[in-house]
């Protein structure tokens, strides 16, 4: 059998400084990745995509450009189970950064405690299917969460889930049974053309509204192909804000790996957040208070 093709990703666009008012002090971008440099942190051989090197200094430059004090680095599947690039970044900037790692079922509890010391605050699991198969190689399946749930709970961490909301209704019982805070990536990563009335997205709204589940107001460029303003993604954002702004965080998804369509501009994505979230109190919760609570930043 031929080896699966490894797609090369485009580099991120140069970030424009947002024209809107600056974010509040201690604003946090809760979804980004560092990749490489590959000479120091090689990419996994069994990966779905090859990103351009996106090292820590580039990410911090992006944060500075859009005016954010804090960031959360999420382990990207291009590095597989090797969290080294992300952990190295956390060790360099413990004042600014927190992390979400991946781990197999046999990970040593002592290693998880060391990650906690470095700033890891959650584990990410992959339940994102296309054509009956997990769409990204290198991720950890949700089934592993059952084994790791006691350790996650003891550390006060959360479970981050990469899922298409079409599969959420049947997954909710398993998630609730774990007794952990759950964070859903990218507004549920649905297709914006399906609209907000689907059973899957409505189940996400109820979960967020009930308070046991969080959602990331990120990935408009993954729901929609209508760059650069993604108007058909806006109803999803607004519905989540209307459901419960106490359980939402925002992320730019830099450096936007494996984007299908036009590469977004992180500065413009933040402008869209401000435009789509006009209430200043809600903005402060989503950008500052909520991520401080979820990721353990000082108030």
From TrEMBL:
Keywords linked to the UniProt accession: Hydrolase
InterPro entries tied to this protein: Amidohydro-rel, Aro_Compnd_Degr_Hydrolases, Metal_Hydrolase
A GO MF term: hydrolase activity
Lineage top rank: taxon: Bacteria
SUPFAM superfamilies, alphabetized: Metallo-dependent hydrolases
Keyword Hydrolase: yes
Regions annotated as coiled coil: none
Domain Amidohydrolase-related: 28-297
Pfam families per the UniProt record, alphabetical: Amidohydro_2 (PF04909)
Name the record gives this protein: Predicted metal-dependent hydrolase, TIM-barrel fold
Organism: Bradyrhizobium erythrophlei
């Amino acid at each position: 059998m031929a080896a699966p093709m490894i797609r090369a990703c485009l580099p991120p666009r140069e970030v424009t400084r947002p024209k809107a008012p600056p974010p509040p002090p201690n604003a946090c971008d809760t979804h980004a990745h560092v990749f490489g440099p590959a000479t120091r942190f090689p990419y996994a051989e069994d990966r779905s995509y090859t990103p351009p090197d996106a090292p820590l200094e580039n990410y911090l430059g992006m944060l500075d450009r859009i005016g954010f004090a804090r960031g959360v680095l999420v382990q990207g599947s291009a590095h597989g189970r090797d969290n080294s690039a992300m952990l190295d970044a956390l060790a360099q900037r413990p004042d600014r950064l927190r992390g979400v790692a991946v781990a197999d079922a046999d990970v040593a509890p002592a290693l998880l405690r060391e990650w906690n010391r470095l700033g890891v605050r959650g584990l990410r699991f992959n339940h994102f299917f296309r054509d009956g198969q997990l769409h990204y190689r290198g991720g950890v399946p949700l089934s592993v969460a059952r084994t790791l749930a006691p350790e996650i709970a003891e550390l006060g961490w959360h479970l981050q889930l990469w899922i298409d909301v079409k599969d959420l209704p049947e997954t909710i019982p398993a998630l609730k049974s774990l007794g952990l805070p759950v964070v859903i990536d990218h507004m549920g990563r649905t297709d914006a053309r399906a609209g907000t009335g689907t059973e899957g997205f409505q189940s996400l709204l109820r979960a967020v509204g009930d308070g046991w589940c969080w959602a990331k107001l990120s990935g408009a460029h993954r729901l929609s192909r209508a760059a650069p303003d993604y108007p058909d993604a806006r109803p999803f954002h607004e519905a989540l804000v209307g459901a419960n702004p106490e359980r939402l965080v925002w992320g730019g998804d830099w450096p936007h790996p494996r984007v299908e369509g036009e590469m977004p501009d992180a500065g413009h994505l933040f402008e869209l957040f401000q435009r789509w979230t006009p209430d200043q109190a809600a903005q402060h919760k989503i950008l500052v208070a909520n991520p401080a609570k979820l990721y353990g930043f000082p108030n």
